[in-house]
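Bench notes, afternoon.
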Amino acid sequence: MDKKEFVDGLRQELAQASAVVADTDSIIQRLSSDRSVRSQKESAEMSVWLVLFSCVFIIFTTLSIGVSERTRRLALMRALGMSRMQIALLIVGEGLFLCIPALLGGLAAGFCLVYLLEEGSSSVPVLTWTTVLAAAACAVGGALLASIIPAWRASRQSPLEAAVPSSGFIGKVSRVPVWSVIAGLACVCLQPAALLLPGLEVETRKWIFFWLGYPGLVAGALFLAPAFVRVTEWAGSWITGLLLRVPHSFLKVQLSRNLSRSVGTAVSMSVGLSLFVGVQTWGYSMLVPFSPDTSTPGTLVSFLHTEFKPADVPELMARSSLRNSRMYPIYVDEPDIAPAQMKTPGFSGMRNRSIVLAGIPVAEMAQGSHPLFRPVFVSGNPQEAYAMLESTRSLLIPDTFARTVGLKAGDDLMLVNPSHQGRRSGNAPSAGAHGRGRGPGMQGEPWKVAGVVSFPGWHWLTKTSGMRVRRGGFVAALAIADERWLKEEYGHQGFQFIWGDTAPGVSNLELQNDLGEYALMKVRQQENEGEGVKPLVKALTRESLGGSVTSRGDDVIFTMSKLPIIMMVIAVLAVLNTVLASVQSRRREFGLMRAVGVPAAMVMRMLWAETLMVSLCAVVMSLALGVLGAWCSIQILEYGYHFGIVTPPITMPWAHLGYAVLLVLALSSLACLLPAWRMKRASVTDLLSVREG
């Protein structure tokens, strides 16, 4: 019996039991369509491409070094009758030969890594032919791509160069083509242009940003890399020469004498570091709107599954945990933005169509000599704004929301209160006439924007406290109004939140236990001494909110940063390769220096200084491109993505970036240590006896 016959035979029983048949095919199909699985697959694919991109430049650097060292040999081959195509195929063959051990080593390393990660599994990982063929295609394709420019350079060697004595490492200083700088700037500016050009449709803006912007950023990095090398060489030679006590004249043209080698090494190193800079900058910038500051009251208490009346306030505030505290009831609703306003420019790109509206006692919480609520006003005057909140249907909105939709003080925001359609079960009132107001707020008449304020932490505050009383999903903003309007216009007869500052020495646990007892007592009274639904009391403080945001953010950002760190370690191979080639090609030059009295320690420091200059070039490139990419990635979120309403300013995690820079410099120094030590220990006679083979 096949699967279809089996399911058809049990169709009636399955329908009665509301059950389905789960087989291997359906499970695989469900997993392949799962969002988290797709995200992991996309991350793995991106990792493969980034590592391949970095390795292409390592192979490119190796082949470029070989071509530079064998100039006379290649010219002699041309003089003996080899064609340009044969010379080019020779270099391509070297590239393919390099990819064979890399392919075998990569497959073995991947097998071992999967085996170690699945330590608790009884099965042994299987290398399928699909995996082997995909790895082979990446290795061969990367080798061919890396061989193009070195093969072209080798095929251009003139036979006459065979008669010219080799100059060793001392050669012509390469200049940066002007067209390369112009093309690089044009490519890098594609993403900012997609964000800043006025009049573009949202979908057109997104298409340019993703399909032209990201490839343009990569191409721009390649075009601008020679300019970065020359600028860093000019500035870095002074810095490294001063730190390592090496004469500036020895360093000022060392990188540009073999520009392709320096560019390949710098790009290989900057791939991982620029991705690390982008991830860290984007991640910690996105944490800013989620981290509350001292402009808001210190503690928010949520009472889920119960609701208190205004008459309960004196008894509630008399609890031992709230004595000597400054806590006030607030009224919360979640109205929709009116459909007509959602169609206007600024709003049309948002997918979040509701806001959390919190009614607070403005006179007690925001005014006076020691207010609890003291936000920084971005637009509007505080005194006038608070007067408007008390006298008219007006509200304060956060600057992240205002900047996205283009609102300012004095504008209108049309809200429709759909609370009569029901609320989430966790916030269902026990009784009362919530949502039965008859004022203008029920028909979608506009609220006046009294002011735009900086309100960091509103997103995380509403998410974790249960203030998203109706949908429970994403919301566009947390708006502040006077409690009068939620009572009169939205018909709120009770409250489920209190907000303010607790008395010193009262812990969260004491607060939750004490208020939990009171809430349970009120529920039993309302249920005529019955059990009812046990209320849940949740107390959130600025410190706990900030700590949870930081903790979760650190974990996520560190997970995202693992791949860039691995790529930075891989890039050490490019540095080691460059240093070994530099030592080999300049042995005679170093021998002449030693013969005229330059100390061996000075020669060793020269190699170290050159390595640091290449690393410094990679750092400068990574910071410039990584920060630009992070800024663009933040700004594009305004156009309808998960955090489309949160557009924070760019925030640089200098400590983490400093650690990454130190890691790059330390790994580079370790990579050059052995070649430099061997050069120091070599005798002058051995160095001077070197000839090109």
